[in-house]
Amino acid sequence: MKNYPVLLLTLLLSAFFVSACSDHDSARTPAPPPPPPEPVFDPQATFRYDTFGDEALWTDVLRYHEVVATISPETALAVGLKVDAEALPPGILETADLTDPATTVALLELDAVVGINAEVAADGTVTSFGITCALCHSDVDDSVAPGIGVRQDGWAATDLDPGLILSLSPYFDDKPDQRAELQSWGPGKYDPYWNHDGISDPVVIAPAYGLRDVALETYTGEGPVSYWNAYVAVTQMGGQGTFVEPELNIEVHADPDLVTPKLPALLEYQHSLEAPVPPAGSYDPEAAERGRVLFTGKAGCEGCHSGPRFTDANTTLHEAHEVGADPLYATRTITKRYRTTPLRGLLQHPPYYHNGEFATLADVVEHYDLVMNLGLFDEEKSDLAEYLKSL
């Protein structure tokens, strides 16, 4: 006969001792706390407002917090800076003095100057100054006044003069040759290798829209979008992050890294920016249709400008002589070749080619007709240019 009371007592005692031992062990070795959650970065805010800590360059070295306090909005607009109308209190522009540098400081305090993030003390002193991606890759629609309107993120800042803006820094007071070089670049151009190799050969600022499904960014296809974002953030903007490229002898590390964790958010926002639709009346639809037939046929443009983004950059880069391009810029890069530029939104960012040597799309067509020996008639060239405007 089974002794159920004894068995039950044994089980209860076992459970008690197991529980007691478990509690004792837990008291001695508490479970480790859960890891902190990964930071979440807002994609749009990263693009528009994040300096990645580049105040270390723009404030500490270039002393631009001092410079900007002496610049009027009138002058700022003249060098291509833009004002975000949606950041302004109603009616402020009706009374603002656009010739007074104090108005510039007030705009900075409102976060209304596109691509600039500054801190302003209670007494109106600008204490820090940094730049963001939006400085070169956003525009405004001029709906309030020239240079003042609603943001157009991803659009190339074609009238921004980065070289002139840089040259105003006191850092260049004892470097007249470098200052003169910067001032020679002109609006809408920048050289992202000049501070490494000392060669001045600026390229046209490119749009940041229409990059989804485009594997390689930049005119020379150095790498995917996030590679170039890291390069620019660290080596050009002065952000505090990590970028390593042995072929260019670049190795930069920062702790904490204020760039790398934000690259996915930045990429997400860029991929959300589609190329703008051509404005009504900006091209002749009938001529554009004839141009489309030429594009895919006689002119052979589709051989390189293929797929929905009109580029073969996902699989191919081209030697300079293939497209009649100046080889100098490519020789300074890791690929030594050029990427086929995506064509969507082409109408919005003249001049064309990496160095801006062609003022109009008609000039581009004329160039390819000569280089490729296409034998196009004048009317065909005109139709092809109209098609490019329609993309």
Automatic annotation (TrEMBL):
<dbReference type="GO" id="GO:0009055">
    <property type="term" value="F:electron transfer activity"/>
</dbReference>
<dbReference type="GO" id="GO:0020037">
    <property type="term" value="F:heme binding"/>
</dbReference>
<protein>
    <recommendedName>
        <fullName>Cytochrome c domain-containing protein</fullName>
    </recommendedName>
</protein>
<dbReference type="GO" id="GO:0046872">
    <property type="term" value="F:metal ion binding"/>
</dbReference>
<keyword id="KW-0479">Metal-binding</keyword>
<keyword id="KW-0732">Signal</keyword>
<dbReference type="GO" id="GO:0004130">
    <property type="term" value="F:cytochrome-c peroxidase activity"/>
</dbReference>
<dbReference type="InterPro" id="IPR009056">
    <property type="entry name" value="Cyt_c-like_dom"/>
</dbReference>
<feature type="signal peptide">
    <location>
        <begin position="1"/>
        <end position="20"/>
    </location>
</feature>
<dbReference type="InterPro" id="IPR051395">
    <property type="entry name" value="Cytochrome_c_Peroxidase/MauG"/>
</dbReference>
<dbReference type="InterPro" id="IPR036909">
    <property type="entry name" value="Cyt_c-like_dom_sf"/>
</dbReference>
<keyword id="KW-0408">Iron</keyword>
<feature type="domain" description="Cytochrome c">
    <location>
        <begin position="286"/>
        <end position="391"/>
    </location>
</feature>
<keyword id="KW-0349">Heme</keyword>
